[in-house]
Amino acid sequence: MKTQGVLVPIVTPFTKDDAVDVVALEKLIEHFIKVGVSGIVACGTTGEYYALNEDERRQVLECVIRVAKGRVTVIAGINGMSTQGACERAREAEALGYDGLMLATPPYSLPGQAEVIAHFRTVAQATSLPIIMYNFPARVGVEIGIEAVAELSKVPNIVAIKESSGDFSRALALIKAELPGFEVICGCDDQAADFLFWGVRSWISGGANVFPGEQAAMIDAALKGDWEKVRSLMTGMLPSIQAMESGDYNQKAKLGCRRHGIDVGSVRQPLLPLSDADAQAFCQLLDQYQP
Questions:
Q1: Is 16 a catalytic residue?
Q2: Of the residues 49, 98, 134, 249, which is catalytic?
Q3: Of 289, 281, 202, which Cα lies nearest the Cα of 248?
Q4: Rounded distance between C-alpha atoms, residue 142 and residue 138, angstroms
Q5: Is 168's pLDDT higher than 90?
Q6: Which residues contact 229 (CB under 8 A, 6 or more apart)?
Q7: What pLDDT does residue 4 have?
Q8: Which of 23, 125, 272, 285 is deepest in the core (most CB within 10 A)?
Q9: Which of 212, 206, 202 is nearest to 30 (CA)?
């Protein structure tokens, strides 16, 4: 599974009737591939996986495979409230032909570290696909501890961690640990330049729904050692990225897709659309972006 480059945890478009908009999703995937992303992550956090029923989830997974398979890396988010649920989703994604999986600790149950390790081990045993662990304690309430990461990195098909803790000291400790056959992936959009500076070359970015080509160009610049271009690109995107990170991330990711001429609709409850004032303020930030 190729992970170098920008992989987009793609938004799930909805129609005005709140159905999955497969046509808009196809257009979005085509655009992202055209501007240089390396992969598509289906049913991730930015894709509102938690708000999809099983039929809708299947629609999204099948659409991504149909349009992107063989062109870029395709990864399925398999988060679930239980380990068994994640195992079932892993098997589903494998049967559909996905290249890899992304998995966080289960939300709400607050497992301890031994239970976190058992969770990932059990899911890894249920599939032959490579798994990217997803560390996002602000979302799920539990961190995958550094010692747990080191232990789980020994599992043959646990190959990487998307690091979204926001604690770059922790991220740097993982990077410098140089765990054999294991990769640290940037999962904090506002820290991407820092990850790149320390040698990370993979970025799973919700913000790439808004800036797909620009973020792909950042990875390319880092590969060439052009740090002035990295800084310039990051400087241009940073106000919008910081606005997204400050709150209403999914709403702003969807609003930002209008940059590509694609209307992906609104978010689904429990989230609510941005107020008119907040939407206008974010659009003004996007308009100020200078490539």
A1: no
A2: 134
A3: 281
A4: 8
A5: yes
A6: 217, 218, 221
A7: 95
A8: 285
A9: 212
What is the rounded distance in angstroms from the CA atom of residue 184 to the CA atom of residue 229?
Answer: 23
Which neighbouring-strand residues pair with 202?
Answer: 5
248 pLDDT band, cuts 50/70/90, is very high
Q: For position 64, which CATH number holds? A: 3.20.20.70
DSSP secondary structure letter of residue 70: T
User: What whole-number distance in Å separates Cα of residue 180 and Cα of residue 148?
Assistant: 15
Q: What is the mean pLDDT of residues 29-54?
A: 97
Q: How far is CA 116 from CA 48, 112, 120, 226, 277, in A?
A: 23, 6, 6, 39, 41
**Token pair 């992906």 in the structure block, residue:** 264
Give 8's strand partners.
40
Lowest mean pLDDT among 124-133, 159-168, 281-290: 281-290
Query: Is residue 134 annotated as part of the catalytic site, yes or no?
Result: yes
> What is the structure's pLDDT at 291?
67
**C-alpha span between 255 and 249 (Å, rounded):** 10
Give per-residue burial for 221-241: e unless 16+ CB within 10 Å, then b. bbeeeeeeebebbbebbbebb
What domain count does the chain have? 1
Q: Which helix (H) or strand (E) holds 41?
A: strand 39-42
Q: What b/e sequence results for 3-22 when a residue is b if at least 16 CB atoms lie within 10 Å of its CB, and e otherwise?
A: bbbbbbbbbbbbeeeeebbb
Q: Which parts of 223-280 are beta strand (E)?
A: none
The model's pLDDT over 169-225, given as tens digits with 9 standing for 90+, comes to 999 999 999 999 999 999 999 999 999 999 999 999 999 999 999 999 999 999 999
Q: Which residue range forms the structural domain that includes residue 51?
A: 5-288
